[in-house]
Amino acid sequence: xxxxxxxxxxxxxxxxxxxxxxxxxxxxxxxxxxxxxxxxxxxxxxxxxxxxxxxxxxxxxxxxxxxxxxxxxxxxxxxxxxxxxxxxxxxxxxxxxxxxxxxxxxxxxxxxxxxxxxxxxxxxxxxxxxxxxxxxxxxxxxxxxxxxxxxxxxxxxxxxxxxxxxxxxxxxxxxxxxxxxxxxxxxxxxxxxxxxxxxxxxxxxxxxxxxxxxxxxxxxxxxxxxxxxxxxxxxxxxxxxxxxxxxxxxxxxxxxxxxxxxxxxxxxxxxxxxxxxxxxxxxxxxxxxxxxxxxxxxxxxxxxxxxxxxxxxxxxxxxxxxxxxxxxxxxxxxxxxxxxxxxxxxxxxxxxxxxxxxxxxxxxxxxxxxxxxxxxxxxxxxxxxxxxxxxxxxxxxxxxxxxxxxxxxxxxxxxxxxxxxxxxxxxxxxxxxxxxxxxxxxxxxxxxxxxxxxxxxxxxxxxxxxxxxxxxxxxxxxxxxxxxxxxxxxxxxxxxxxxxxxxxxxxxxxxxxxxxxxxxxxxxxxxxxxxxxxxxxxxxxxxxxxxxxxxxxxxxxxxxxxxxxxxxxxxxxxxxxxxxxxxxxxxxxxxxxxxxxxxxxxxxxxxxxxxxxxxxxxxxxxxxxxxxxxxxxxxxxxxxxxxxxxxxxxxxxxxxxxxxxxxxxxxxxxxxxxxxxxxxxxxxxxxxxxxxxxxxxxxxxxxxxxxxxxxxxxxxxxxxxxxxxxxxxxxxxxxxxxxxxxxxxxxxxxxxxxxxxxxxxxxxxxxxxxxxxxxxxxxxxxxxxxxxxxxxxxxxxxxxxxxxxxxxxxxxxxxxxxxxxxxxxxxxxxxxxxxxxxxxxxxxxxxxxxxxxxxxxxxxxxxxxxxxxx
Length: 870
Ligand code: ADP
Ligand code: MG
Hints:
6 domains; Nucleotidyltransferase, domain 5; binds magnesium ion; 870 residues
């Protein structure tokens, strides 16, 4: 190291403390990166890699980005989960003896981003911390640095619970102890993709007491302290906007594990991970960024407490009834700026005058919103109105001080109104007077010299000057003005008087710009005192926003207010899948009822592919969730139990996230549901057991159904393609068969998407193939084969004297719901067939129709067709 130049030595010293971050090292107008940082950054950012002499044996790799456009590069790195340490020059290079002093002023990480495109305005950006304590206890706290919210809870049990909570929070960064179990670190990365950071300091500093007064126990306080220490250490600035820890218990909310949340597409779709197509997308009629974030939080955590659900419902109803007031509120909400994030930037000290003008405009909407709510006549509405704090003091201050359209920059003046500060007014007068004097001078000099085109101008280098065109120079007396600059067709002059005035004007302008900046910082400090009140206001406004949003959607889409049943009865009349209905056009959607009670706990749903089984199951779960977040539901009438948990498992073939051993995942998830569900839970098992062979799959499916029926008693919707399971209705009292019907019209199958009582009786696979436009010749051949199989089956049944009853009991003699009966029967068929026919039958037998794309089906049929024809 000794051979490196002093600057490189300085670089290496700083870098030693920030091994896991890109070090942006300020050199003049650039941030430079060296060594390995430079190599990776040049790849990640697609910028040119160069090198420089640094005193060592080899040239040092180097790349850099201009200071003024650094933000976009930083954002890109953060987006990809990296951290960036910003190292600035902390002394004036002109005054420096030796190498300019440099220091890291901020570590920017995925979880601590405060601004930029990477920060979606309708999404929180959380950073989480996990601490481990004896006896499988974990402290879990997460915080949004941009809004100041901080929530936390103690989790007991195995690490999966922590992982689940972490995944639900959506945190992009997790802070851990240095010693934290390496396997778990890997799990965290795999499951959530979060960036991992370390902080071992859990000391409770006195500044934290304000934040942790609500902390229910020592463990949670230490956990939060670890996070706070990390934030103070890396951000190195004022964090006065952080809000007191909001401690919660998992038992307060409906539990929806991460996989179920994904399966139900609550906040993003499975396929594209986009908001569009999710429940959140459907519901989002919020008008403010804060409301958008709260809506997501509400969807993430449906309630269990009936009184609170009913309070929300009442407010939604109030907003629906008062249509005009609601429209008024929506208009006003549009004008409300992101007060939460603004409060954060006030604390950080990086708000500009335009932000504060927007703050003022936002606050000016509050009295209007109050008036609109005052016109509504429920006590719940009035209670919310009273919580609205218009923060008049801030409005008053900002109205008096800030100019209406201030510039972005704080260093160019024009921030402050006339009349706000006497000294500033004097400077401005001086500069204005000076300018009037100059205008007058121009007039006088024109008269004196008789040169009409003479003008007084200004530039940064020469200041004020008198300009005379070459053609008119002869009209000037010798030595009348002092020559300053020659242009192609004009000369510029100055006079001592002009320079004197100029000094006065410039001085006044400089002083006034400085003073304006000073006054602005004072105003900012003043606003800072109001951060807690602004945050409280932000909360109330976001709540109003989400409630008006529920009202708007519920009215527009004809939702009804659900009632809650203490008898665990569920009655949904004309229920719809909220998102599918919206996407496909409401008229085409076929509504369906769902009835469950204490004697009817499990529905076994059969029906051909594409008939609407999965959609039906999801719509029931979404209805329950909508009800428990306080929204109305897509039905004409609804009574629901309050569910403590919702579990969903979607069969392997429908599970679009491929790659993993799907059957294993399926079983793990099924186990998770079975181990945790109670009689108050809702379970959706969609074609479970599909990921393995028929025998395995069907036995498991039956065993799972029996277990839920006998041991758990949870409300369960179980769809299956194992038709044989429908006989369970006879043995299990609380299980009922339902099916999704389809009819044949002119030899074609038409899906009615209508749920009916009883089991489905026929598979429509061949008809589906017909719908997919397979050659008609081929379809009729398939029909022939099917008929011959059916005849064989009848023959066999008659011969063996098997009636319907016996067939029902023989459920353990397993075969899959398909037109091609298996095993035993096949043997019988086969010995009457020619070898070629056998080959074809075998080929058909080995097809897993449920697991095929239409294209694959086409190909196989094409092959078969060829064989038959030859
Ligand atoms: P399955 O699970 O039985 O294979 P899906 O639930 O996936 O069937 O539904 C297949 C398609 O049928 C869906 O993509 C949807 O477009 C349509 N569908 C489902 N339910 C309905 C309904 N109630 N009304 C109208 N169309 C529906
Ligand atoms: Mg399905």
